[in-house]
Amino acid sequence: MKKRISFRLFCTVVWRGICQAAGRIGRFFGYRDGSGFGKVVWRIFAGSAALVVLYIAVCLIYLFGRNVIYDRWIGPMTDTRYWEERHISNDIVYQWQYRHKARRLYNEATGEVLMRNIEWVAVSDDKDSLAVFAKGGKRGYLNRFTGEVVIPADKYTRAWVFSEGLAAVEKDGRLLFIDHSGNEVIDKGFGIYFNNPGYAFHNGYCILHEPVCGKVGLIDRAGSWALEPEYDNIFNSEGFWQVEKDGLEGLFTSDLDTMFAVSQKSINIYMDMIEVGYADHTSRLYDFDGNIIVDFRIDRVENLLYQTEDFRICPEGEDEGTVYDPGYAVADCMKYTVYEDGCTEYCGLMDRRGRRITPPDYISIEAIARDRYLCRPHGVILDDRGMRVD
Fold first, then answer.
1. Which of 1, 256, 311, 317 is the most buried (most CB within 10 A)?
2. Per-residue pLDDT tens for 176-216?
3. What number of other Cβ atoms are within 10 A of residue 83's Cβ?
């Protein structure tokens, strides 16, 4: 049966422990006064140390409770004065309370509540002056620098942020584009595609899905098709328009001039170059003007070793006689490796002058003689000219 410890006994044990710790510290520094006065001094010192430790502990507990527990969990759930917030400009703030489900637009400079019961606010990536907001199940636009409502939330069921001066909205099931005054500038009978994350213009063009077949194209600022909706996917990368169709890729410039026809196996755009992969596992590097930088990209080159049939004479005291002791020698050709899509490895043969003997058609190459190479997965043997050996 466990014995219950009273609070008084607990405090007594802690006090004596502090006194003993203080005594050990004093003896460490050479103080050994065992008189009654000395004991009183030590008790005063131990009491002071205990108070300091208690004060520090209370401060730490208070700070943790105030700045972590209350601010993160208790405050947002209980305090009606507590608001989470997100700035949409220097002075205009969107605020919300989790528990009370309150939402509002607030001006920090004037302390004025500009709008209540606002559901959400979204600002465009190009920092347009107008931000889209939702209220009462409808969408509208407000000036994110002043908080003033520019286009009321009374007629659009869905709306997207402004990009290059235009914004997409849904009205009566139709997809329209409006300007900053709310004027409908594009109304071509487009429908809303269920899986389109957003309608944004880049360099004068906007990606649009054809709602029936789901194919993708580009429209210009007049609402005309600049690229017909015949592609599986389109995305903008480094100012270029990259398209995908039937498992192949192509690339257009920002002005929709064809840089690479839709016949490439892969296209990767980096900060200062474009890598184009072809069906034969080869790839080239181009600059942004379409000029070739590297005609044949290789990731790795290595020597091929083959096993020789050497013999040696064992001296007396060992296994005396001639024994088989195989060694390794360097083959005439080297193996080069390319990585398709950064992961799948293909390799081919190359001579000592860097001339490619075979395309990268194989997953592995092994030297079996000075001028013989076993190539898989086909299982063929090639000589140092790339010719098949039966």
1. 256
2. 999 999 999 999 989 888 777 789 999 999 999 988 888 99
3. 17
